[in-house]
Amino acid sequence: MFDFRCSAGKMSEQQRFCHHHLLLSPLLLPFLSFSLFLAAAAEIHHQNPPPAITRFQQYLQISSAHPTPDYTSAINFLTSFSNSIPSLQSQILYFTPEKDKPLLLLTWPGSDPTLPSVLLNSHLDSVPADPSKWVHPPFSAYHSSDGKIFARGAQDDKCIGIQYLEAIKRLIEEKNFSPLRTVHISFVPDEEIGGFDGMAKFVKSEEFKALNLGFVLDEGQASPGDEYRVFYADRQPWHIVIKAVGMPGHGSRMFDNSAMENLMKSVEVITKFRDAEFDKVKAGLAANSEVISANPVFLKAGIPSPTGFVMNVQPSEAEAGFDLRLPPTADPDAVRRRIAEEWAPSWRNMSFEITEKGPLRDHKGRPLLTPTNDSNSWWSVFKQAVTSAGGKLAKPEILPSTTDARFMRQLGIPTIGFSPMRNTPILLHDHNEFLKDSVYLEGIKVYESVIKSLSSFADSS
Ligand SMILES: [Zn+2]
């Protein structure tokens, strides 16, 4: 989309130039009036932003940060906006006894309710923001003169939640469009703290089963380039603690199989594995998110003394912790075997604990990923819809972190992570998170095309 503000900045120099040379160059006259028009348009655009921008700002101004996200205000705002859109039905679901974590589910009924439906998901909550690190208060939704809207959640992911609604509003009110398939829009709590009281419980509910989903769109990430990024899988975290025990001894003695020696050998083995994975990335053979990362996060050993550690005793126990991230293409059994046989072998007096933070296989034992090729006709429809809105998709990626998409993929429902933000720095969870107004508005157009195509998709498979 044409960027009004940026051009207006350039135009003012042009105007000065024109002003001085007006009499000398009558040919510049048409250009001058065009410049003035653009400058004026920029002013109006910024001082009287379109209602879609104002609504985005209002949603951003609701304090959604953990540990105290204001779910009530968010639900009230979204419900009242959705009530203004004809044919949208709404219900609020709760999955905790305290009823303090609402989930808003909106439904746009299709003409053939027997066809599997489409779900557009986003989360209500955000990570915390430290106001002292921000140029503008994180819940001010400050709109700068160059079009940036600053707020926690501007990219992750309040933008997509409200873009879904804006796109549907336009399809209904301006295009008079009605869907063949039913479209659902969910606003879920607690994604940023694991989704356990949100999407994790929702997917197990009767209400979820009743949706009969065929395809899901969930959040993605900004793209600094001109192509939209798109994600077909998440990496799953595993937390590994390895522990060595051995005979304690005087610091002066040399003997085999001390706890520290055993642990250090394991650390070496794991470091070699890490190097080999990292080398694939450095050689350009794989993206960061396509390899298994294994990063040391703690070391625990030694006997504390008032001044630090006792230096003349070799301890009888030593521990180390590692954060592993596994792509869905990794074989979890092979990794478990490697840990047991090479990283913490019992013959070296070692034991281990694995905390698997997420699944790598779906309910049928298949890798937890959504195919992005012709075998998945939803993918083809989605891709075509982005293209016809003037967008281009980058090569599909594995998200380095995790999202609620894993819960739907686990049920075997094709789920794509997509947030239409291009030419935008990646600022999720960062200070001064912002989204440009023009990028936001362009995203609504992309969703108009995507929602229209997905909900018109007649293939009954
Ligand atoms: Zn998010």
From TrEMBL:
Its EC number is 3.5.1.14. The keyword Signal applies. One of its GO terms (molecular function) is metal ion binding. One of its GO terms (cellular component) is cytoplasm. SUPFAM superfamilies: Bacterial exopeptidase dimerisation domain, Zn-dependent exopeptidases. Residues 242-341 form the Peptidase M20 dimerisation domain. Its main location: cytoplasm. The active site is at D125, E191 (proton acceptor). Transmembrane segments: none annotated. Binds 2 Zn(2+) ions per subunit. Keywords: Hydrolase, Metal-binding, Signal, Zinc. Zn(2+) 2 binds at D156, E192, H429. Pfam families: M20_dimer, Peptidase_M20. It is found in: Cytoplasm. Its cofactor is Zn(2+). Residues 1-42 form the signal peptide. One of its GO terms (biological process) is amino acid metabolic process. Zn(2+) 1 binds at H123, D156, E219. Belongs to the peptidase M20A family. This is N-acyl-aliphatic-L-amino acid amidohydrolase. It comes from Coffea arabica. The gene is LOC113712434.
